[in-house]
């Protein structure tokens, strides 16, 4: 069984924000809402490292654990999604999330997006796949089209990988072997602990 | 244990709050049905994607896609 | 459905983890997002629903029976040439997919590339032709605009001559539009035509072409997979060419050592094995400092130098002056660091050098670029895969627009401006020679009536054969005393055709110049800084041009590869493709028929394929001849067959061709030359894309042989150096009869550059020879002010102690038609009042003048404020805190109001500003001067407002990397 994962290879990430923009493009995410963002540590000094962060689709998702209305579900391949019809926008998931993924639009101008919005691994929501309703609430559904998240598919340096966790790990391992050094699969311990 | 207690008390507070709201609102609407809360079970609509994900062909398509797009070629 | 196993986690606990990840980082983005969020959010909210509705409508229509069509284009931002795959439904650009098949980007995009679909919606575009009336923008029809503009410039032409109208073109043109634009200027009768290359890589083109023949990137981004060392100087690829980093980092993973030299610790430096922080403007000392170690230790490639390099001994003599202690004093780089870099380059071969604006934009830019070349020649790194000078060009088609001569000093194909050059193109254009000459001004003007001196006639250089005013100096072309300008009169009218003025320096003078001219015309998809900078009431027009996604044609990437763009959508609003506007205007000006004589014209649109065929017929010098529309289209359909490292098609219909037929693609399309992936690579035969250095500078100098000695491309029948091919040479070699009868007729008396049949090239290549000869590269350019590159301090320098030893040039009376100052500026010490070095550069989210990208809501959100990077020490000295508004003032009196970003990315004493902002002037937001709804989301001070005088001694490149400033709290 495939288990979808994200991995950002910090040795390749150049903080170009291609992923952030690809996400905006694919899902028409409004200004001020960032399903994905690039975080830079030690900006401007030796050791500077950047990582692209979004919902990691955790195995044991803390957001789902704290949701008072139980609007989260996890698909067979590990993608964590939610039903915006149920979401009450309480913000508990934001506090629970170790990655700061849930977003809360401040205005009501975008209809249901006033509720919590987050990365869907380009897999939409519970509505009919790629229906107008799904597009409006969750953006595109690439998984249903047999494609993978656009952020990773458009990554300028192939730093951000998204797909079957084993295949992602294979590519990453190959790079580590080639260039030496210790693997730093950032966020995996937190997101995928106990996952095979 | 401690976490469990905290959670329990929080749920209790939430339930109380909901009860108060419901009681308050019964006064001005005629709705009488009450949804019982079963914590931990997804309550939203069924995603048709879930059925698709069981299709081996779909799984294979995604794998092919990964190889095509995310390897260095 | 999988049920979720719950785990308890308190909100407090979770918040702690969150702050651990996101809370501690203070980066540029977090800093800026905090500053301007509210403003931007409000500005955008109003326009968003329309966007969503359009897409939804298109999708619904598609669902009801329509089908998404795929269109293949190329990103319109930088020169990497990333493939763009567009999904179009009912004429609306509904989706953007990764172009996995492209060997350049393999699907990848930076923020700019990932955002190009937004251009297909473009709420902030210039929508209709506009005219300034009583200080207000009013909508006019195309017919009215063309009629009024045409009448006005014809009137100016009558009074002040053709040279008084300036045609500023663009690196955003397709190849076909660029070519047509240069031809347009020629038929109008002026060399006052230029584009962005003047202010980005003109010193590269001049320096490199004068070293080994062609002034272009020698290898490719992809070829960096093969490098063993990568030396970046003045290049911040991670922000300026992000997708190039895919190849750079692959090279690094393959074991290459990466060295970055820059005044800033850039995002590229963050990935380097070694970083050297130099003082801005000290490139020559650093390179000579490295060569000092290379010569000292005998690390140079002696056999390579003997066979293929002229003048290395002269370099050696200059380098001897740059001992480690002197280099450390001048550059500020520790001596052991310089030695380490030299050793790395010597021990890891092949190594490549990458440079960009950090090296080129200096008064001695041409010295810098030639010093870089000398380093690579000494190491024997040129002409080998994994080596070379990987000069990353800026705009998507700045290479093409340069090649096609949108420049004031040459015709298409670097033919120059000599009579023979014009005659060559007159033959290609099939226009009457005498008519063409009559279009130009004569070389003198009778001023007896209106000058105090009562001179009878003031002679000036023949305008047809003398370089026009460069874009860096158009301001002086307007404001300088007309008697000091080497043409009949000052500039009276100017077309900003895809070119924003905030990329040029000296803001206050520019504003005055824009207010002085009789007519200012902007042709652009956006109003740009031009529309709002001057305080004018009349005499200004804005003409909406389409983007390259609304038309089609070819584009040349930095590595000299052509790509074909398909049209994605129809022109938006009332915009028109540039070549349509050119034709309309040429018709009004009276030379439409001559402009398009060899082209089919339909609905005022010259057929793009026909324009490319005319290009193919004339561009023999650089091999722009083999890339026919048909060959390019075939490659577009078969991108996936090209190897992403070698760029060679393996099988399929393009088998054996290199991707994009990188120039030179010799001869006619029929001989099917595969293109040249690596310039001067003797390990391949010329027919297979091999080459040697070009014989361009004669055969001997002062008795020394300039031709190659014992080095030749694989399979060459002349196994030594040889001069460039001519008809006579073919006869002497006994190869003349291999020409067909038709070829003979065309080739008689001609050479490889002027034989329109391509026969001379075909026969030379058949015998394994390079049509342009086989010579040595030269390290001494005897025609330049500094034949061997030397260091000269910037005009505005903070190191007054070095001025005596490394002074700038004396003032020049006339260079590119204008007096040019050097010594008279450097003579004055400004460093006491303006103690900080001011330098500039790029941000990943924006490009060029930035109007297009700042009008793109996805990009605008990422960088909402103009800012300056200031070192903590300088901030503390000036009493400035992070995020505070400051004034940055130049020694010429300009000032800009921006926000301080306090960071160690810049050294103490250095202030960095990004140059993409515009729409403000000296503290004032010019929002109300834009046409309604056409203002970019993000506006800010133009960095170049506060950049100062200073121009390269060969090309008039502007100095924007080493000036002075002072900062204070606003």
Task: Give an account of the 3D structure.
Chain A contains seven helices and six strands. Chain A is an alpha+beta fold. Chain A is globular. The N and C termini of chain A lie close together (10 Å). Chain B is mainly α and 73 residues long. Chain B has three helices and no strands. Chain B has helices spanning 2-26, 49-52, 56-70. Mean pLDDT of chain B is 72; it is low at 22-27. Chain C has 970 residues and is of the alpha/beta class. In chain C, strand 15, helix 20 (507-516) and strand 16 form a beta-alpha-beta unit. The longest helix of chain C has 19 residues, at 142-160. In chain C, the strands form eleven sheets. Chain C has a seven-stranded mixed β-sheet. A six-stranded mixed β-barrel of chain C has the order 27-31-28-30-29-35. Residues 1-26, 33-53, 60-65 and 450-455 of chain C have low confidence and may be disordered. The chains are: A alpha+beta (196), B mainly alpha (73), C alpha/beta (970).
Features:
heterotrimer, B: 73 residues, mainly alpha, 60% helix, elongated, C: 970 residues, alpha/beta, seven-stranded mixed sheet, six-stranded mixed β-barrel, 32 helices, 30% helix, disordered N terminus
SSE blueprint and pairings:
The complex is a heterotrimer of chains A (196), B (73) and C (970).
Chain A: E1 4-8, H1 18-27, E2 36-41, E3 49-54, H2 62-66, E4 72-74, E5 80-82, H3 92-96, H4 132-138, H5 150-153, E6 160-164, H6 165-179, H7 188-192
Antiparallel strand pairs in A: 1-6, 2-3, 4-5
Chain B: H1 2-26, H2 49-52, H3 56-70
Chain C: H1 11-23, H2 28-45, H3 48-63, E1 69-74, E2 83-89, E3 92-98, E4 130-133, E5 136-139, H4 142-160, E6 165-168, H5 175-188, E7 193-194, H6 202-212, E8 229-233, H7 237-240, H8 244-253, E9 257-261, E10 274-276, H9 283-296, H10 302-308, E11 309-310, H11 312-319, H12 324-331, H13 335-347, E12 351-355, H14 357-360, H15 365-378, H16 398-403, H17 419-429, H18 433-438, E13 444-445, E14 458-459, H19 474-479, E15 493-497, H20 507-516, E16 519-524, H21 528-532, E17 540-544, E18 553-556, E19 562-565, H22 578-589, H23 592-595, E20 601-602, E21 605-606, H24 608-618, H25 629-637, E22 700-701, E23 704-705, H26 727-733, H27 741-747, H28 759-766, E24 777-778, E25 812-815, E26 818-820, H29 823-826, E27 836-841, H30 851-854, H31 857-860, E28 867-870, H32 872-878, E29 885-889, E30 895-902, E31 910-914, E32 919-921, E33 924-925, E34 940-941, E35 963-969
Parallel strand pairs in C: 6-7, 6-15, 8-9, 8-12, 9-10, 11-24, 15-16, 16-17, 27-31, 28-30, 32-34
Antiparallel strand pairs in C: 1-2, 2-3, 4-5, 4-17, 13-14, 18-19, 20-21, 22-23, 25-26, 27-35, 28-31, 29-30, 29-35, 32-33
Helix pairs in contact in C: 4-22, 5-22, 5-24, 6-15, 9-12, 9-13, 9-15, 12-13
